[in-house]
Design brief:
This protein is an alpha+beta fold. Helices cover 26% and strands 22% of the residues. It has one domain (2-89). A hairpin with an 8-residue loop joins strand 3 (46-50) and strand 4 (59-62).
Length: 93
């Protein structure tokens, strides 16, 4: 895992984590780190991700306001839970 500061464009997420007693940093699997950074660079707000660890499909959860951006970027929604629209397949893993 790579531990990084939560990006500035995700300040409300960072503040909510700190208010809940969590760290202002997050851990990301190394094999998807570059892709997550690319998503951040275009303003996507992520709420969790996993490379799958060679057992499952990789994914990223995004804020509701980032769903349209993910679709514009060509990402496919992952429907582990059909009631959720915020989970997407990652391209790099």
């Amino acid at each position: 895992m790579i531990t990084v500061d939560i990006p500035e464009h995700m300040s409300s997420y960072r503040e909510a984590r700190v208010k809940a007693g969590l760290s202002d940093q997050i851990c990301i699997d190394p094999c998807i780190f570059n892709e997550i950074q690319e998503l951040w660079s275009v303003g996507v707000i992520t709420h969790g991700s996993c490379c799958g660890h060679n057992k499952y499909k990789s994914f990223v959860n995004v804020a509701d306001e980032s769903i349209d951006k993910m679709l514009e970027l060509g990402y496919e929604q992952e429907h582990y839970d059909p009631t959720r629209r915020d989970t997407f397949k990652l391209k790099s893993a």
